[in-house]
Structure formats: C-alpha cells, structure tokens
Amino acid sequence: MAESSQTFVKVSASESFVKIDPERILAPIDDKIYSGFLEHMGRCIYGGIVDFDCQVKGLTNEKGYRLDVAKALKDLNMPVVRYPGGNFVSSYHWMDAIGPKENRPRRPELAWLGEEPNTFGTDEFMEWCEFMEIEPYLCLNMGTGTLDEALAWVEYCNSDKNTYYANLRRKNGHEKPYNVKYWSLGNEVWGPWQVGQMTSEDYGKKAFQWAKALKLLDPTIKLVACGCTGFDNWDYYVTQALVSKVDYHSIHLYTAHEDYYKNVTSPAAGERAIQITAKLIDLAKITQNAFDANIKICFDEWNVWDPVRANGEFGAEEKYTLSDALAVASWGNLFIRQASVVGMANIAQCVNVIAPVMTTKTGMFLQTIYHSFLLFCKYMRGEAINVHFGSPVYTGDTDGSAGDLKWIKSVEPVLTMLDVSAAIKDGVISIAVVNRSLEEDLTTSFRLEGKYKDSVETYTIYHDDVMATNTIDKPDVVGIKEEKISLDKLSSYTVLKHSFVLIRVTIA
Ligand code: AHR
Fold first, then answer.
1. Which ligand 1 atom is nearest residue 312's CA?
2. What was the pLDDT predicted at 373?
3. Which CATH number fits domain 30-381: 3.20.20.80, 3.50.50.60, 3.10.450.50, 3.40.50.10490?
C-alpha cells in the first residue's frame, strides 16, 4: 500500500482512504478547461455539427445544425470551442469560406487528404457559436498562410472600423464584430506531418513578429503560442522566445493503449506535461526578465486516441470502451489538480472524430467517454481542493501514444490505483474517484473535515467488462448510475474495481 497526494508520496497505509479539508483550496478552476475542438476533418463538421443535406425531418434546423448534437454538446456547457484545426488549418485560407456559397471554391485538403467544400466557414462558425452560447477560439494558418491573411482575419472578425475587411464582414450580413478573443499562432508547427513545418528557432522568430502585429491591430486579443507536448525541447525554446508576447502556451497529448493498465495510467503523462510546462514558463519569465508575463497553459488537444487504430485519413472514428472512459476521468482529475496553471483545455474533438458524440444520418449516440467528461463538466467546477489519498499501487509497465510514453513510471514511480481530485462550489464538495484496479473493489474511508448534510449523491460509471462500448444499436451499455446514500456510508465506501464514481457532499 502507498499513500499519494498531489504534494507528496509516503509508502505504508493499511487501507484506502481519501482525506479532504475544504479549507485547503488549491486554486480557482477555470471553466475553460471544459472547452472543445472542432476541425474540418472526417465527419466532425459536415455530418457532425451540421448536415446541409439532411433528409430526416426535425433532425436539423433551418441553418442545417444537427439539433441532437447541439443538445448533447449544450449539456456539456463548453465555454470555448477551438476551430478550424488542427492540422487542417495549415493549408486553409479562411477567405475561401466567406460570402455567397455558390462562389466558394472547393479545395484539395492536405492534412487528411480530403476535399474541402468551404460551405461552412467563419460566419457559419460564429453563428453556430452564438446559437450554442460558446466562445470561438480561432487557430491561424502558419503553414501556407501569411501574416497579411492572419491580420485580415482578425480585422474581419473583430474590427468596428471603416476598413476593408470589417466592411467585407458587413457586406456579408454581419454588422457587428464577433470580438473573437482567443487566437493561436499555428498548430503543431513542429510536426513532420504539418504543412509548413518549422524549426523552433524559425517558429520563435516568426511567431514573435506575428504576435506583435496582431496585437497592434487588436490589443484585446489573447494569443496562444504553439507548444509541443510540454515535455519537449520545443516547449523550452518557444517559452523563451515568446514569453513577453503571448498569453497562453499550448500543449497537445493523446494517450491510448490496448493494454488496460497502460491505457488507464497513461494520462499521468498529461499531468507531468503540465507540471513541466509550468516550470518552463517560470524559467522563461526569470531568464527573459519578463516578470509581468502572465502565461497560462492551454491544453488545446487532449483525449484518448490511437492514430493507428483510428486513422485520421479515415476520419479517426475511435470506438471508446469503459477503459477509455476511466482514462478520460483521470484526464479530468489531472486538470483539476493542476488548476493553478491551466487556463484552458480542449477535448479533441467533439463530434465523430475521436469524439464523445457520434452521429449517423438519422441519429446519434453518446460514447463511453461522454459520460465521464459530462460528470466533470457538470460538477467539477468552482475551486480545486487539495486531496490526500492512499491506495494500493500499480507496479507494472506504463506506455501510451504509440510507444512514446514508456517513461511515465520512471518519473511517476507511485501510480496509485485510486486516482482522485476534488472541487468545491456553492458549499458542495465534488470528489472524483477512479479505481483503476482491474481486480479489486477498494473499500475506502472518506475522511472529510467539517460538518455535512446526511444525504450524499453518487454518480457511478461501471460495467463488468472494461472493453464494453456504446453503439448506435446499444447506446446505453455504459452510462451513469445515480444514487443517494447516507453520509455515514462514506466512512467505508466500496469503490468498484475499474469504475469511476463522483461523490457530492453538501456542507451543513
Ligand atoms: O485532433 C486530430 C489531430 O491531432 C489534429 O489535427 C492535430 O493537431 C493533432 O495531431
């Protein structure tokens, strides 16, 4: 047995426990950690959030929005959605997708080797965001795109002046500026798959100049630098180069493994990524004398994804299991534990492409991961609180992301079977507990400082088979079971093997 908390590790405990003192606040949780991502990729946009050729009455509205998808995403209450890519953006010209639809060119698409009809573009995305009550976050093309084109996009979206692109927006029927606050300086520019791949030195120089110009045009925008995984030399270089110019440093990581334990423990790499990035930002502030810089981490692509089994060129339609739902719950836990440094996180993606929501031409279903993500989106808000917990530990190998994450156990020698985070909002404490053990139910003593009401709510995600999935024909195989229990049950509460439970207690 070992004890583990986010602050220290001590071996030796005779039973699993979770200790919480609600006065030990870690940090406010930024609601933006529950943001999403939509890319022109596979069936994410066309056939996902919109269907312009829908034959089923009532499935779409007059604008072609899929109303069933809209409802599923609205329930997640996502504050921000990143668009239009991803790799797609690196050969995307936003001006192809504005104005009368009949004049918009159909283009070859170089990221996923498809064709882009451009029938959904900037104005359609802004209207969809307004309908969804979601704030847009646009990613700039630093591949084939120019600074002029980027400036024009910011002007088109944000300017209220009497200038060319602001007037073009008016001509296209949108009098008021959209005031897009979040803009990122390219996507995965370091990647060999990226159109316009650059070295960190070239990126640093170019992004510095772009940032300067973009903020001259609109000083209110928030700029997101293109980072790598957070544990790469690219991140060191780019934080040094851009510390005085940007508001966020973005990082991306996907975890996945066929082996159950490797799958559910690999999100630990995401936590290390955040911790390392936070220190790189500190280091850049110190070494570059940028003491006023206030840079948060924007984890703008995260999820469970194996690009070999769910190939991007075929739409990356992952079929998620209970095991993946537990991994997503551990992703949620790490964002809560690292709330002090994470300013935004975007599950990648939202619909059909590595997504919690899947559509057919006539309906939709919610994947297993939707349910664990939903519980976080609904309840893990407010302020993160420090948790001290102990449980048996996982001692096997770690890995993920196609063999890249073997290192996890060397930097994270104690991986507890229980993975826990907690949040407090309006006098209610929400405790998110994943039991990663494949074999053992863990009888856990929840010890909470203070006085609580007798009625406790629990929300459990469990199935006998860790490989259980939801499908269009059997959409409810893995779901959420709600129960009410009395407070005293928490002193010896059984967290089922390979399950996720979210427990809500109310301060008396
Ligand atoms: O989300 C799918 C892809 O993963 C994105 O286009 C890219 O940024 C990342 O490699």
1. 2
2. 98
3. 3.20.20.80
Q: How far is the CA of 43 from the centre of ligand 1 (A)?
A: 14
Is 496 exposed, middle or buried, given 0-12, 13-18 or 19+ CB atoms closer than 10 A? middle
From-to residues of CATH 2.60.40.1180 in the chain: 6-26+385-506
Measure 307 CA to ligand 1 centroid, in angstroms.
Answer: 10
Query: Tell me, what's the pLDDT at 376?
Result: 98
Q: Is the CB of 3 under 6 A from ligand 1?
A: no
Q: List CB contacts of 409: < 8 A, sequence separation 6 or more.
A: 397, 398, 415
pLDDT, position 14: 53
Find the 389 Cα to ligand 1 centroid distance in Å.
Answer: 35
The model's pTM is: 0.96
Q: CB of 87 closer than 6 A to ligand 1? A: yes
As a whole number of angstroms, the distance between CA 233 and CA 461 comes to 38
Half-sphere exposure of 296 (CA within 13 A, CB side): 19
- In angstroms, the CA 346 to CA 79 distance is 10
Alpha-carbon gap, residue 246 to 229, rounded angstroms: 18
State the amino acid at position 207 in one-letter form: A
Given this model, what pLDDT does residue 13 score? 44
Mean pLDDT by 10 residues, the chain (508 residues): 44 73 97 98 98 95 98 98 98 98 97 97 98 98 98 98 98 98 98 97 98 98 98 98 98 97 97 98 98 97 96 96 98 98 98 98 97 98 96 94 87 92 98 97 96 98 98 98 98 97 98
188 in catalytic set? yes
86 pocket-lining for ligand 1 (C-beta < 6 Å): yes
Report whether residue 48 contacts ligand 1, using a CB cutoff of 6 Å. no
Ligand 1 binding pocket mutation candidate from 187, 250, 318, 352 (most atoms within 8 A of CB): 187
DSSP bridge partners of 443 = 494
| Domain limits, CATH 3.20.20.80, in the chain | 30-381
Location of structure tokens 């929840």: 446
Given this structure, which CATH class describes domain 6-26+385-506?
Answer: mainly beta
How many other C-beta atoms lie within 10 A of the C-beta of residue 101? 14
Q: Quote the CA–CA distance of 166 and 182 in Å, as a whole number.
A: 18
